[in-house]
Specification:
The complex is a heterodimer of chains A (about 525) and B (about 950). In chain A, about 30% of the residues lie in helices and about 10% in strands. Chain A has eleven helices and 14 strands. In chain A, a hairpin with a 2-residue loop joins β13 (about 495) and β14 (about 500). Chain A is globular and about 80 Å long. Chain B has about 950 residues and is an alpha+beta fold. The longest helix of chain B has about 50 residues, at about 335-385. The two termini of chain B are about 55 Å apart. Classes of the chains: A alpha/beta (about 525), B alpha+beta (about 950). The interface between A and B is large, with 123 and 130 residues.
Amino acid sequence: MYTAARCHRQGMFSKPHCVSTSKGTFNTMQTRRQLLNTAAHGFAGLAASTMLLENDDARAEVPPSGGGVVEVLHHPAKAKRVVQLFMGGAASHLDLWDHKPALEKHHGEKSDFGEHVEAFQNGLGPWMKSPFKFAPHGECGHMLGDVVAPLGECVDDIAFIHNIVGKTGVHSQATYLQATGFQQPGFPGMGAWVSYGLGTLNENLPTFVVLPDHRGFASNGPKNWGSAFLPASTQGTTIFPQRKNPIADLLPEADYVTKASDDAGLHLLQQLNQDYQQQREGDSRLEARIRSYELAAKMQLSAPEAFDLSAESQHTLKMYGLENPDATYPEHINIPEEAEYFGRKCLIARRLLERGVRFIQVWSGNDNSFPRRNWDSHEDIERDHKPLATGMAVGTAALLKDLGQRGLLEDTIVLWTTEFGRMPSTQGSKGRDHNPYVFTNWLCGGGIKGGISYGPSDEWGYKPLDRDNPTQVYDVHATILHQLGIDHKRLTVRHNGIDRRLTNVHGNVLSDIIS
Amino acid sequence: MDRKGDFSLQTGSALKDSGYLVAGNAGESHLLSVLQSVDGKPPSMPKGGEALSTEEIRLVSDWINKGAAWPDAVVLQQPAVSNFDWWSFKPVQRPEVPPVSAETSDPEWQQSPIDAFVLARHRELGLTHTPTADRRTLIRRLTYDLTGLPPTPEQVTAFVANDDPQAYSELVERLLASLRYGERWARHWLDVVKYADTCGYDKDKLRPNAWPYRDYVIRSFNEDKPYSRFVQEQIAGDALFPNEPDGILGLGFVAAGPWDFIGHVEVPESKIDGMVARNLDRDEMVTNTLNTFCSVTIQCARCHNHKFDPFTQEHYYSLQSIFAAVDRAERRYDTDPETERRRRELSEARDEVAAQLKKFDDDVKQEGGTQLAALDKRIAKLKPKAQPADKRPEFGYHSQTSGTQNSEKWVEVDLGEDVEIASIVLHPCHDDFGGIGAGFGFPVRFRVDTRLTAETADKTDRPETSAAAGLGQFTKSDFPNPGLATVELSGNGKTARFIRITATKLADRKGVFIFALAELEVLDSKGNNVAAGVKVTALDSIEAPSRWRKNNLTDGIWAQAADPAVVAKLSAAENQRTEILNSILTPDRVASHQEMLKRRSDLDERLKKLPTGRMVYAAATHFNPQGNFKPTNGTPRSVSVLHRGNIQQPQATVRPGVIPLTNDSIWNFDLPDGHSEADRRAALAHWITSPENPLTWRSIANRVWQYHFGKGIVDSPNDLGQMGRRPTHPELLDWLADEFRRTQSFKHLHRLIVNSATYRQASTRDEANALIDSDNQYLWRMNRRRLSAEELRDSVLSVSGKLDLKMGGPGFYLFALEKTAHSPHFEYHKFDPDDTASHRRSVYRFIARSQPDPFMTMLDCADSSQSTPRRTETLTSLQALSLLNNNFNLAMARHFANRVESESKGTSASTRAFELVTGRPPTVSERERLDSYRRQFGLANLCRVLFNTSEFVYLD
């Protein structure tokens, strides 16, 4: 793996002088010293964040206050919050965002990629046009498949990146890569890094919230939003809106615990813990622990309010696809059900953003089992993508418009991403195989330029048009951190001898898509 | 250097060839334009790096203008560190123990060398040590430290009241002898090696047999297994300790980490994704081994030479090649020594018979002399040429297999009526199975019997007693294998309805014995085959259509020779060979040969009947294939240095080796040609456990110290290299490392440490010391710590009276397990914490890698996807909510209350509950508060609160 970033002056210009001599003078050391200084500060503002026994190398440093380790932003921020919409199973760029007239023209002809292609399965059949009709939207005239047409009103705020490349067509590794910046397990999710760097905006709610697909987890499950070697407090908190306790352990479920016993119990606990703390002067952890129980009580009040949609207007509910509160659905995958579940997550996301949650991850699609309940359409694009995409588009469009109306889109970045793309050739007669060689991401809000398409794919949507200059997940992550006021090379943590960062040793800020 | 583009800076000529540079004219050189910022955008080179300064660009420009001189000898290489002058590479030498009398008058501090080293540092820095902690604190600290469980209030009271000066060291001995010790310390080990019960990655498949390795680690700690032995078992136990279960169980180490099911099972090794998965899998093995045993961050050298430590990519890939033949899979071990003894005996006996059989063959060859040898050669040459012209899939009849050659098998045709027989024609089979080919399954000895309609079916089982006469007896000596030649027997005008071929000596099919025949023709006087399509019966048949079935015997299909001349020659050679053999093989010798064969098959049967043993998930070279995941059968995969770690850019192949620790280290293994893959691992195990390896002993001594004090002497336990921390007490570390190297005993090291005055200090704060050393790096007091996730959960069970101390076995679930056929769902929220199967120590829980237990994770449990040499200690409101409201704590609080109520009533119940949780009686004011709350809300509510007290959760 890699070590300090500074020494990765690699690429074509790898230089002999880049070798480090004994103890380096690289900037990561400075960051570290800063961290040590900040760690020595008081703990007055300790919040839903964390604190540790002491500074240490095997674990991360202490965010000293409600804020994160980046006490002074590296540069002025354009955004404060992030929403990551993640399509599990790999959503097809060709059928949603990246219109390919060549496929319409050559539909059914033998595919010819001009080179040997290694397909994940055997999806190298004839060229296949999208089963969905494309039409231009907005002033920019971006072409969208009809299944995502609800987003047509938003395209002038969106920057599409059509030349994202992955590293592998294996779901698990690809999901890790997009979620954590590494192909292997054991690395913090992007939301954990952001929580670690910036801390919370509202200590009464978790800093990083995850809304999984209601049917279950995508590849890798909660490891995609784990804290790994960062403090556990930076991990994503999963919320299942349909469960009795949407946040695990938020409220007690025991017949002997009543409101009164809970309140009085917390009071007794505070007294006992204060006594204990007062006999052990100078251990700030013990004070922080008392405070953590006070905050817990506040969260018990704040969180249910944030999940309660009853105060939302009919208009809003309808916009998010939630107009039929008691609807029941058939067993087979269908649009209204997808719209309701995804829309509910989007509406909760908006409410959480309003209340100061820093990072929200919304998932569509669970594991790769059958019948398909994710985007892995090897057999039939239309069968799976139509309901999933329509449901996603309804909720997403509502979220973007709603955030816009409330002035929140200005400083909230919304990222749409997936594992990889799908092939322009056929698998079976109606499906598409994995395409890690090119796919689409889009960003919106938070200082992102709207109405643009960046980095085209080739005429088939098989690889980037300019193969030497693709966009990678590191660039997207670097750009998002940049908008948040963080230099992605400076947010590092020493772990087992390596200064780790979200972007590994890569990443360029995509200056073309930021305003 | 990256040679992806057409641009290279490796040599002067390569640079000039690239066209990026016009010597003598910087203005014309494209090189300069890519170094400079254009339109406010960063320059395109260096890619991903910091832009060159104006001064640096000017230097490049000047150099080009002056002709871009580049000495031929200068070839730029990937940079490598070559500095071995680093503390952790130096030999471990036992340092002098500093004299202590000058340091302190405290007699407690004048006994242990550990204290002498610590005091020496104190004096240098102006620190003073803290007095010994009170006895209540000591027993609580020690009991948790060594066993991970709280002492009972009775144990605390007895220890506090015991004024014997030996009481403390006796307590140490009692705790070290407890089986709870292994459970506690194994958990530390499992954190480092990434143990879990699922594979991780996509689907996160279960590993139902990972747990024997976990139990092995617990047992090894309890037995105080010598450390070298412990290490060797985990890397190469199969090679170094054959026939011992621990030699296999230890290999669970190599397989402990995550594994990509899709990348191995669904993607073949021939595809890029398959190669990537296998490369990353070996990377995990190398990383796990070097991080765990040597605290070296070798993983940094996968894509380029290590930036800080003197390790190159070549070293790294040489380490990969050590693991190039092993995969993670289930393999058998046996914990029953009697069964293993039987297996060894039988295997030895079988080997003996095999040797006798070989000698028999050798003797025959010898006696057959050159003539037999020449015939064997000729037959071997002719056989491949005797190919069938047009082989149809319907091969013929094939009996079931027999373990012995001389059991009889028969096959019979029913002509439907009595027929006068002119001749019978036997057509042999052709099957390439086992390289046999022509004459496959043709009986070595046989006879042909016939019966009339009148001789009815009731006699079919005993044809030899029937009145029918035979058409041929070839039972006294071996019949030459006809290859693809037909065997025609005269009917002698006999009339019959049933024709039966009985093999009396079966054909050898790679160690089992069979009878096979492609076609049986029965020709009447007019030359018509009256057997065509008639019914066939047999003693037995493998019936594996379409190749093998009884009816194939009369289907008119058989393998016919493409070249009858070759077949004739082959047949003649076989005839001659058989004649020679018949002359050599006296009836006595034949009988003894038969006896040997029978004995061999007998032994095989008995071996097969032995219990098959139990399985452990471990490093394996032989296992049942699963999809594209296939065993290497011990043949190492070829490993090359990969440019930038890219599987598609292999460079030189490497030989197995390790890392150098000095400038002149011989780091490649000196293994002979034809060495086995296990020899490589054995060499690695020996290198790691060599007394000369300074990293091994420092690494483990530092880990043990760290687990006792919460902080290592080197505060980067997985990295003793340049990016790690420096030791605070280098001499002490070496002294401990030497003690451990000498004794190989964990328990010895524990004794030394926990009996020291340094360890027994109170954890109270001292302003003067804190001003000098606020982090307590120099141990002027003991560190207060929070209980680990496991300690907390086990303590809750323990004080609630619910802890089941059953040891070992499959992990218990803390979730409802659903949808295991595809991707298992671990539904923690559906689990009933009252399930008594789960009331065991946390080290025995089933650990799901992709979906870690939320309650344990909230308490900073180790992430099994990464080596965790030290737990973090976080504090959050969500953690507070977990301790307050998790269903486990809520259920246990009720049990806790029931337990206390059964032991005491009223006010004393509050006192008792408090004592169980804190190890001390409450003060008067505390008791009043506790009791007031209990009276109002009941004991269960009080117990719930007590689980959340800092005094329960922290150790002084």
